[in-house]
């Protein structure tokens, strides 16, 4: 009996030890764990966030881990059907059913048979259809606001500390609206590879260099996404 008891105790301690060091990620390639490491090193325990092209509250989400740990932020998802999930599952966040564009208005939004590819870009939508055999299921008219308009509406003077962008073809439009001199995120996670069904996507080096030139350190790259941190903040 004593031997059995010792084995049970030993097993419980080993299991407990293993669980203590276990890490869980919601992101596509562990981006949220990298970003958490950055904020932990900056002594920011609960960073605010702006998630543009949020898609789903948890699936492939770069912000779900932070929400789970007590952070709160803004999710922007233009697809009305996908947006419903945020109302139910991220009810302590501010959720907006709009798109982000370079002018305020209403644009065609292409609903693709694989919802992760939904886009405001007709060029991208047709590319998905030709190269990946994904169908354009529907085209909806969706309200689009500029980034500055969104920040004004929600009365946010300070840019959220973490910006996640997965806007399928209009990422550059989003990034180039940021005033990197006055109001900017500390950390950016951005999809920087073009769509490809063969794994031969092309990196958007021009956009990566643009962000680096605005004072960011290219901290990590998961091939799909690139993670940047404000250099002056990181090197303090």
Describe this entry's structure for a reader.
One of its GO terms (biological process) is methylation. GO terms for molecular function: methyltransferase activity. Pfam families: Methyltransf_21 (PF05050). With 236 residues, this protein is α/β, with parallel strands linked by helices. It has a domain of 160 residues: Rossmann fold (3-Layer(aba) Sandwich). Helix content is 34%, strand content 22%. The protein is built from nine helices and ten strands. A seven-stranded mixed β-sheet has the order 3-2-1-7-8-10-9, with helices on both faces. A three-stranded mixed β-sheet has the order 4-6-5. Helix 4 links the parallel strand 2 and strand 3. The longest helix has 19 residues. The radius of gyration is 20 Å and the shape is globular.
In terms of topology, how is this protein built?
Layout: H1 2-20, H2 31-41, E1 49-52, H3 64-68, E2 73-76, H4 80-89, E3 94-96, E4 99-100, E5 105-112, H5 122-131, E6 136-145, H6 147-153, E7 162-165, H7 171-175, E8 187-191, H8 205-213, E9 216-221, E10 225-230, H9 231-234
Parallel strand pairs: 1-2, 1-7, 2-3, 4-6, 7-8
Antiparallel strand pairs: 5-6, 8-10, 9-10
């Amino acid at each position: 009996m004593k031997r059995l008891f010792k084995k049970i105790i030993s097993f419980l301690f080993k299991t407990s030890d293993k669980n203590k060091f276990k890490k869980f990620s919601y992101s596509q390639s562990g981006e949220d764990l990298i970003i958490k490491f950055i904020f932990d090193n900056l002594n920011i325990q609960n960073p605010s966030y702006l998630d543009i092209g949020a898609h789903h509250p948890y699936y492939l989400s770069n912000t779900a881990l932070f929400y789970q740990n007590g952070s709160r932020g803004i999710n922007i998802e233009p697809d009305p059907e996908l947006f419903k999930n945020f109302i139910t599952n991220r009810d302590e966040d501010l959720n907006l059913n709009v798109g982000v564009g370079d002018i305020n208005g209403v644009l065609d939004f292409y609903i693709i048979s694989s919802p992760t590819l939904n886009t405001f870009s007709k060029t991208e939508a047709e590319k998905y259809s030709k190269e990946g055999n994904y169908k354009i299921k529907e085209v909806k008219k969706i309200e689009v606001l500029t980034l500055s308009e969104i920040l004004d509406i929600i009365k946010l003077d300070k840019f959220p500390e973490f910006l996640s962008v997965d806007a399928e073809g209009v990422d550059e439009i989003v990034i180039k609206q940021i005033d990197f001199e006055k109001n900017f995120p500390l950390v950016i996670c951005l999809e920087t590879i073009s769509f490809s069904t063969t794994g031969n996507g092309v990196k958007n080096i021009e956009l990566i260099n643009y962000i680096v030139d605005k004072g960011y350190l290219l901290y990590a790259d998961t091939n799909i996404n690139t993670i940047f941190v404000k250099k002056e903040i990181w090197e303090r």
